[in-house]
Amino acid sequence: MSQQKPNMAEKREHLYKVLVIGDLGVGKTSVIKRYVHQFFSQHYRATIGVDFALKVINWDSDTLIRLQLWDIAGQERFGNMTRVYYKEAVGCFIVFDVTRVSTFEAVSKWKNDLDAKVQLPDGSKIPCVLLANKCDQSKEGLVNNSSQMDEYCKDKGFIGWYETSAKENINIDEAARFLVSSILDNDKAASHDDREQDNDKLALDSTESGEGRGKGSCC
């Protein structure tokens, strides 16, 4: 009878829901396919409603992350389902196409819609990264000025932005790692706050029940 080797260290596992939103045809599906499957095609049908992909990340020696990517159709901002789609998300990519200024002009509307419909448990905005996609092609508008883009992102509440190309595999992994780092930081902060609250409650409970008095005390 063979003996199983004991697990020396169990990996901590996290499941995070991340939204990928933006106007129709900006390359959301291509970005996800490149990130998850290292695959690119010129021929994708427009997403209808919402699609899903799962990326498993061995973050470090004791942390495994399952990233559930929600690919939401470009026209969905005008529908009533986005509140359902956004529910329980902890991070987001908003994507625009650098060759079409109109898709950049729509970014603030997507961001406002996102902030109105989903928040972290503490009521703060979920971390969101702006992707200036198709950067392998000629760029139009503000994206040509990086300092102005920095200012724009700061003003709109993005944690950062990246020029990306799903076709040439530019900055996709870097942008994802940046977002996941922010999600992990928020998760750790929330866990710390929960522990503090639990400790406060334990201290309060023990005081109220008379515990914690000196053993030799008499009243």
TrEMBL record:
Q: Where in the cell is it found?
A: Membrane
Q: What is this protein called?
A: Ras-related protein Rab
Sorted alphabetically, the keyword list is:
GTP-binding, Lipoprotein, Membrane, Nucleotide-binding, Prenylation
NCBIfam families from the xrefs?
small_GTP
Please verify whether the record's keywords include GTP-binding.
yes
Q: What does this protein do?
A: The small GTPases Rab are key regulators in vesicle trafficking.
Tell me, in one coarse class, where this protein mainly resides: membrane
GO annotation (BP), single? endosome to lysosome transport
Write down the PANTHER family for this protein, in alphabetical order. Answer: RAB FAMILY, RAS-RELATED PROTEIN RAB
Compositional bias per record (Basic and acidic residues), positions renumbered to this chain: 189-203, 210-219
Q: How does it sit in the membrane?
A: Lipid-anchor
The family line of this record is: Belongs to the small GTPase superfamily. Rab family.
- Lineage, uppermost ranks: Eukaryota, Metazoa, Echinodermata, Eleutherozoa, Echinozoa
**An example Gene Ontology molecular-function term:** GTP binding
**CDD domains found in the cross-reference section:** Rab32_Rab38
Give the region (Disordered) as residue ranges.
189-219
Can you quote a single GO CC term? membrane
